[in-house]
Amino acid sequence: MVLPVLVHGPSMVPTLRHGDAVLVWERARIRPGDVVVGEFRSRPGLLVIKRAVRAQDGGWWLEGDNPLVTDDSRAYGVADVRGRVTFRYWPKPAFLRR
Fold first, then answer.
1. Rg (the chain; Cα; Å)
2. How far apart are CA 22 and CA 90, in angstroms?
3. How far, in Å, CA of 79 to CA of 27, rounded?
4. DSSP strand E in 7-78: where?
5. Would you write out the chain's pLDDT as a tens digit for each of its 98 residues?
6. How far apart are the first and last CA of the chain?
7. Which domains does the chain have, with CATH numbers?
């Protein structure tokens, strides 16, 4: 299933910006370097968009692309991934790359 998701916050700049609209493929195979939607085990219910760095403890270590923002696995630990961000459809349509 493909889901539309809106980006909130600056943690993925320059790859994604606040207000970007993306499509998430729920059944995608996740590999290191993919941009994903995940949920930190220490913060259930909060979905985030981050980059998958490595598989760890049955989940994924996620980090944002913006080095000035550390609201990622460095602060919250391992996350469970819900899907891979495949396409930004607004404001500048583009496929996402690793």
1. 12
2. 7
3. 16
4. 21-25, 35-40, 47-56, 59-63
5. 999 999 999 999 999 999 999 999 998 999 999 999 999 999 999 999 999 999 999 999 999 999 999 899 999 999 999 999 999 999 999 998 77
6. 21
7. 2-95 (2.10.109.10)
CA distance 69 to 72: 8
> Could you tell me the two tokens for 81?
């991934």
pTM score, two decimals?
A: 0.95
Q: Which residues, including other chains, have CB under 8 Å from residue 97's CB and lie 6 or more apart?
A: none
Tokens of residue 75, six digits: 């602060």
Handedness of CA 46, 53, 20, 26 (dihedral sign): negative
